[in-house]
Structure of ATPase, Ca transporting, plasma membrane:
Amino acid sequence: MLWVNLIMDTFASLALATEPPTEALLLRNPYGRNKPLISRTMMKNILGHAVYQLTLIFTLLFVGEKMFDIDCGRNAPLHAPPSEHYTIVFNTFVLLQIFNEFNARKIHGERNVFEGVFNNPIFCSIILGTLIVQVLIVHIGGKAFSCVPLTLEQWLWCIFLGLGSLLWGQLVSSVPTSWLKFLKTAGHGTQQEEIPEEELEELKDKDEIDHAEMELRRGQVLWCRSLNRIQTQ
């Protein structure tokens, strides 16, 4: 659990926070101080990948021994030796997090999640280092990490299932955010912008393409109101 928490929080945050800026950032308007931290598009990605990972992990947990023709590890006693079953579940979950870091590089629906990946040596080093340590944990971790060495075929299956998160990410990106009206944003600011409630509701009813477009629409409303005030003066 400590290793999983380390790669999901510390290493992943360091890898993604060191992404160099691109020219595409100049095409987006700056976010307002009252805009939500998590947009509907980001919420779609979070929930979409959670569905894939939970479905896959629970399938391996309850049906994995039949899929790989190995001994079941669910009913093992407390101090029983490590099992191939739980090692496969653990290994697959870690690989899912590693490959999902590529999806997390693009949070606005971009298709090419590998664009500019080699321009960030820190990201590449963390991914490569995590993979090497994971191989060492599985093969020489032993009882300390409750793992047993896996065969080449089992490793290939774990990698294949981990790579599935990249394909699933393309499928999630293909679903327009405007179809998912039930999704909510999170992390709003505490102050309200000077826009009437009627105009805010009108903005919410429109289809959201991405976070930057909503900011542009709000800016246009504020700009029109400023012009009206100048004309009145």
Summary: The helical segments are 2-17, 40-68, 84-103, 121-140, 152-174, 197-205, 211-232. The longest helix spans residues 40-68. The CA atoms of residues 90 and 147 lie 9 Å apart. The radius of gyration is 23 Å.
